Amino acid sequence: MKRDMDLIRKTMLRIEEEYVSTAIYNLKVEGYSDDQVATHCKMLYEAGLLSDYKAQYAGNELYMFGVGNLTWEGYDFLDKIRDDSVWKKVKDTAKEHGVPLLLDTIKQISSVIISSMTEGAIKAITGV
After folding, report:
1. At a CB cut-off of 8 Å and minimum separation 6, what does 69 contact?
2. Residue 54 burial (CB < 10 Å; 0-12/13-18/19+)?
3. Residue 120 and residue 128: Cα distance in Å, rounded?
4. Is the domain of 101 the same as that of 67?
5. Of 47 and 20, more confident
6. Residue ranges making up the domain that contains 107
7. In a domain, 110, yes or no
8. What is the mean pLDDT of the segment spanning 1-24?
9. How far apart are CA 52 and CA 69, in angstroms?
10. Closest to 62 in 3D by CA, of 32, 22, 33
């Protein structure tokens, strides 16, 4: 299965929305199968963006899976790509320059976009 960064983002947003104090079981993300969501949750866990991931299989079929909350790094990453317009700019910039959508690439591009937005906001406030 190919990694889908749109699904990664949607999954992180759903976890943030649903997580209270215990694991979330069989997390649903609209438009994606349980296998796709579970595989991407495992990727998030392996990348250190998710605190826990466990899956149970019956034969070769996914029976159920559970996820923990986002880690501190996970929240930082999500905050950089939370806004739809920033996310679109990140994807457009990567595509425009032929850069793959890797976690590090997304972090770097989104940081530059956010810095530019911050500078614009400061100029608007201070008039400088």
Report:
1. 15, 19, 50, 51, 52
2. middle
3. 10
4. no
5. 47
6. 83-126
7. yes
8. 95
9. 7
10. 33
Q: Are residues 61 and 116 in the same domain?
A: no
**Pairing mode of beta strands 61-67, 53-58:** antiparallel
- The structure's pTM equals 0.89
pLDDT band at 32 (very low <50, low <70, confident <90, very high): very high
Range picked from 45-49, 58-62, 98-102 for highest mean pLDDT: 45-49
Q: Are residues 67 and 87 in the same domain?
A: no
50 three-class SS: strand
Residue type, 126: T
Residue for token pair 């296998």: 35
List the single range of 7-21, 30-44, 57-71, 111-125 with lowest mean pLDDT: 111-125
The amino acid at 44: L
Whether residue 128 has pLDDT greater than 80: no
Q: Give the three-state DSSP class for 44.
A: helix
Torsion angle in degrees (nearest 10) through CA of 94, 70, 7, 58: 140
The radius of gyration of the chain's CA atoms, rounded to the nearest angstrom, is 17
